[in-house]
Amino acid sequence: MMDARQLFQQCRNRLPGHGVSQPIAASLREIADSLEGGEQPDVYGAGEYLEDFEAEIAAMFGKPAAVFMPSGTMAQQIALRIHCDQSRNYTVAMHPSAHLEFAEHMGYQFLHNIKRLQFGGPELIRDRLLVLDDFERLGATPGAIILELPARPLGGLLPAWQDLTKLSRWARSKGIPIHLDGARVWQCQSFYGKTLAEIAALFDSVYVSFYKDLGGLAGCMLIGAAEFIQHSRVWQRRYGGNLYTQAPFVAAARLGLQRRLPLMEGWISRAREIAGILGAFDRVIVNPAPPQVNLFQLYLKGDPEALTKRHHALAAKSGTYLFHRLGAAPIPGFAMTEMHIWENASEFDLNCLAPFMTDLLRS
After folding, report:
1. What's the CA gap between 275 and 73, in Å, rounded?
2. Rounded to an integer, what distance in angstroms lies between the CA atom of residue 179 and that of residue 200?
3. ω before 288 within 30° of 0 (cis)?
4. Is the model more confident about 319 or about 4?
5. What are the DSSP calls for 223-242, one per residue?
6. Which has the closest alpha carbon to 179: 128, 152, 225, 144?
7. Residue 363 in this model has a pLDDT that exceeds 80
8. Stretch 112-123: mean pLDDT, rounded?
9. H-type alpha helices, the chain
10. How far is 128 from 126, CA to CA, in rounded Å?
11. Whether the model pTM is above 0.90
């Protein structure tokens, strides 16, 4: 059988992803065609094209300044370091499933000697959002707080707006800087009924990604006060992230923002529609139900490897493709995957979904 990537490309009714994977040349031509022709590349972060984009994003989030960086890992570690330097307190409070903790080899600790404060036993909070009571019971004042909106490891869960504002007011009353891991913050406006600037107003600094929901090549923005961004640029140089030019990444980010952000509300509605069909099966769990954003977790009763093989066999036969792979779930006897509802899902023939799942789950 062909590998999963080839199978995905061959299928015509695809649920995950933004279109199909293109050759490098085709991707670069698409980005080039989005330009007017006179734009000049930045040189080490200086240049009208990049600086205008930084100003645009800063204004969108209601902050004085922003800096484009090639990596979110870099940007968030820099944000932590600056906040901890300013508070002279090298501890951080964040969810045990935070990206900085589980996906970056604990870079914040090894590079900056910053320690994570623990909210009691991780098993007690790993499957839920943090609330104000958790922070009040920490037993120590952190040098900084990080919140992820939406919380990807929890299926895209979002705290209630009232809970979020309470936590923000509490942190500021204690002089604790609060940073937003907003890699997917573009998804949050519909749930809260708030603008990006209103959401960002609850935080001292914000990180946003341009290659996840927006489908850019790579890159992100760190947003905050002017002095904070000035310090961030120094740290960007120390990290080796002040590239000679970031022009291709910036052009791709601007294209993604223009093309895909207006589609976000439709993707969220589509996620709820798809989740409703999937959740009707007895051997399926959707988390959360209904989805709060265009992301949710899908649990299927069965062996992950066997279900993945059956999925790929059905996809090859039917031309319908639901997910790339299933992994082991924390629920014994179940497999799981994340469902990200993007461009392909908007074109997906929903009439094929229930029959495909019936065949997939057939004993």
Report:
1. 31
2. 9
3. yes
4. 319
5. EE-HHHHHHHHHHHHHTT--
6. 144
7. no
8. 89
9. 4-10, 24-33, 48-60, 72-87, 99-102, 107-112, 122-125, 132-136, 161-173, 189-192, 196-200, 226-238, 247-260, 264-278, 304-318, 343-347, 353-361
10. 6
11. yes
Mean pLDDT, to the nearest integer, of 334-359?
A: 97
pLDDT of residue 292: 98
CB of 344 closer than 8 Å to CB of 19: yes
The secondary structure of 24-82 as a DSSP string is HHHHHHHHHHTS-S-----BTTBSHHHHHHHHHHHHHTT-SEEEEES-HHHHHHHHHHH
The gap from C-alpha 47 to its chain's centroid, in whole angstroms, comes to 28
Measured over the CA atoms of residue 86, residue 89, residue 95 and residue 98, the dihedral's sign is positive
For the chain, the average pLDDT equals 96
Counting Cα atoms < 13 Å in the Cβ hemisphere of 239 gives 25
The closest alpha carbon to 18, from 229, 199, 255, 177, belongs to 255
pLDDT, tens digit (0-9, with 9 covering 90-100), for 33-62: 999 999 999 999 999 999 999 999 999 999
Residue 96 burial class via C-beta count within 10 angstroms: exposed 0-12, middle 13-18, buried 19 and up: middle
CB 157 within 8 A of CB 150: yes
Averaged pLDDT for residues 343-356: 97
Domains of the chain with bracketed CATH: 4-21+263-361 (3.90.1150.10), 42-244 (3.40.640.10)
- Beta strands 65-69 and 220-224 are antiparallel
